[in-house]
TrEMBL record:
It is a multi-pass membrane protein. It comes from Aegilops tauschii subsp. strangulata (Goatgrass). Pfam families: Mito_carr (PF00153). Signal peptide: none annotated. InterPro entries: MCP_dom_sf, MCP_transmembrane, SLC25A32-like. This is Peroxisomal nicotinamide adenine dinucleotide carrier. Solcar repeats lie at residues 2-96, 114-237. Belongs to the mitochondrial carrier (TC 2.A.29) family. The keyword Cytoplasm does not apply. Keywords: Membrane, Repeat, Transmembrane, Transmembrane helix, Transport. The chain crosses the membrane at residues 116-141.
């Protein structure tokens, strides 16, 4: 099995584990972003933003534990695909660039190692390929995360209108409206699956809807590209120091990889 495939599988597996652990926070964060304009209006009238922990507890209370993991299945698929594709192409390009650098070094052109700019280009290309192939999955994940919230807002709007009508209606009409209000209060958001999300995106925007936000997402590729450029440079220096101090192994351990990723 090639090193590129191994890195792709490792990246996919690690991404899945991390996604399961952090998904509730991602769900709350996504909902906070979609409610930003509403929160600003509340702040103007004396309201205050709820903490992340409070919102998580509130979400569990209103939607159950499943609410924290709304859209988890496509998200896991997206994470596995995204991390797998990224690390596969990153390692594939890395192997080729290192082979070219080594060949040039044998000819006396350079020191046989890859420079910082080359790492930046490798990471950027791998990130761009990843975005182009996986952004449709993340469009669906975001829609599934926010769907239940959107339905609850619609139900709440209907409830407010009914309450206003009840306050203005006579006793006969008020009784009928109260029955409608009780029926509305018993309603729960409908189940929302992946196929339904796909149909809605296509109906609203066609095929291009699955690549909504592509340009800003490609621009954001700069962040991991810079991170991997710094990471590879620090990794190279650490390996060089280990070799110079006559360590028995030149490979970097998992515990050494952790601070490298942190500082990059």
């Amino acid at each position: 099995m090639s090193s590129a495939v191994v890195n792709g599988l490792a990246g996919a597996g690690g991404g899945i584990i991390a996604q399961i652990i952090t998904y509730p926070l991602q769900t709350v964060n996504t909902r906070q972003q979609t409610e930003r304009s509403a929160k600003k209006k509340k702040a103007g009238s004396g309201g205050s933003d709820a903490s992340t922990l409070f919102q998580m507890l509130q979400l569990v209370q209103t939607e159950g534990w499943g609410g924290l993991y709304s859209g988890l299945k496509p998200s896991l698929i997206g994470t596995a695909a995204s991390q797998g594709i990224y690390y596969y192409f990153y390692q594939l390009l890395k192997n080729k660039v290192e082979d070219v650098a080594a060949a040039r070094g044998k000819k006396g052109l350079g020191d046989g190692t890859v420079g910082m700019f080359s790492w930046l280009v490798i990471a950027a290309v791998a990130g761009s390929i990843n975005v182009l192939l996986t952004i449709p999955i993340w469009v669906l994940v975001t829609r599934m995360q926010t769907h239940t919230q959107a339905e609850r807002k619609v139900i709440e709007s209907k409830r407010e209108l009914l309450l206003k009508e009840i306050s203005r209606a006579n006793s006969m009409d008020a009784h009928i409206l109260k029955d409608r209000l009780a029926k509305l209060d018993s309603e729960k958001p409908r189940p929302y699956g992946t196929l339904q999300a796909i149909r809605e995106v296509y109906r609203e925007s066609g095929i291009s809807g699955f690549w909504k936000g592509l340009i800003p997402t490609l621009i954001m590729v700069c962040n991991p590209s810079i991170q991997f450029m710094i990471y590879e440079t620090l990794s190279k220096r650490l390996k060089s120091k280990r070799s110079g101090k006559r360590f028995p192994k030149k490979n970097i351990t998992a515990m050494e990889y952790f601070p490298l990723n942190r500082y990059s």
